[in-house]
Design brief:
By secondary structure, this protein is mainly alpha-helical. The chain has 17 helices and no strands. InterPro entries: DUF1702.
Length: 328
């Protein structure tokens, strides 16, 4: 009778899974209450929206805590049981955890790269956004290069940074940012992330979101509306009538709302599952189906210079906005 097959050498297993998480990383784990609207100070007068958005927050925390305690190659095994709707949020959290560990342990981006090459490859947009959350906790100059982020998608780390300001800082932080002077060039992408956070900070209420954006200088509103469109279609949590109201309130910034919706459609498509709320959101906000909107992002990317500059990223958004306007 043949003996039991021997286990592969530990070094080979670890190489396949990526660097093991350090023991001290467990101290960084976040508690589930972190996603609670009461704890965050967000409005609780929209119970249905709150239920959806808190669930996404808990999925983020699951991904974050999982990646803190496991090697990148083992993350997929632990997140497989999550509903497909929630996996993107979990990988966003995993992206934050890997970037935070890389930053604190000075590992040269090994964990982020292992996550992007392995289980996070289908959630590449969310992993890059999650890396930006880490920069709010442990700022790292030249993070896009040092963490091994994609030249173009690496700008989404600034989106994640902006989102973290709003999500963790709430209305007080949003109002403070609105009073600041003109942002630096990269601040345009941070405002996109800040706009995305408004979907949570204002519990997906179209009128409150529009009112908050009105409090910002005019040159920042298009970036905020882009983030709102992305969150509305990726996260969901609004009824058809509320989506119609959101489109109406976007006014002259509608094409930027539509561009964000297209980003959401492509991120969902890349993840292998476009949920009903994304199909419905894109149709209500943009007027086309989600697959068509996702295609705009791919077509626009083919027309870029390909230098990975901020100008290239903003041109990508502008080309998608142009496709939305042409579809009206």
């Amino acid at each position: 009778m043949p003996g039991k097959p021997s286990a592969p050498p530990r070094s080979r297993t670890r190489a396949r899974q990526g660097p093991a998480a350090p023991r001290w990383a467990r101290r960084l784990c976040l508690r589930e209450e972190t996603a609670d609207f009461v704890v965050r100070g967000f409005p609780c007068d929209r119970p249905e929206s709150r239920l959806v958005l808190e669930r996404h927050g808990r999925s983020f925390l699951t991904g974050f805590n999982t990646a803190l305690t496991a090697a990148p190659g083992a993350v997929q095994e632990r997140l497989t049981d999550l509903d497909p709707v929630e996996r993107g949020f979990a990988y966003e959290g995993a992206g934050m955890a890997c970037a935070l560990l890389d930053t604190l342990a000075l590992t040269g981006g090994r964990r982020v790269r292992a996550l992007l090459r392995g289980p996070g490859r289908d959630y590449v947009h969310l992993v890059h956004v999650g890396a930006g959350w880490a920069l709010a906790k442990a700022p790292l100059p030249g993070a896009r290069r040092l963490l091994g982020l994609d030249p173009l998608l690496g700008w989404l780390a600034l989106d994640g940074l902006g989102f973290s300001y709003g999500y963790f800082g709430g209305r007080t932080a949003v109002a403070r940012i609105a009073r600041k002077g003109p942002p630096r060039p990269g601040g345009t992408v941070r405002h996109q992330g800040l706009g995305r956070s408004l979907w949570f900070v204002e519990a997906a209420d179209p009128d409150r979101i529009a009112g908050t954006i009105t409090g910002f200088p005019e040159d920042r509103r298009s970036h905020l509306w882009s983030g709102v469109g992305l969150a509305a279609c990726y996260a969901g949590g609004a009824a058809d009538s509320e989506l119609d109201r959101l489109r109406e309130r976007s006014g002259p910034y509608w094409q930027h709302l539509a561009q964000g919706a297209a980003f959401a459609a492509e991120a969902r498509r890349r993840g292998g599952h476009i949920p009903e709320h994304t199909h419905r959101g894109v149709l209500r906000l943009v007027g086309v189906d989600a697959v068509t909107a996702a295609g705009w992002t791919l077509d626009a990317e083919q027309r870029l210079r390909g230098d990975g500059s901020l100008g290239d990223f903003l041109a990508w958004r502008a080309l998608i906005s142009g496709s939305a306007l042409a579809s009206r």
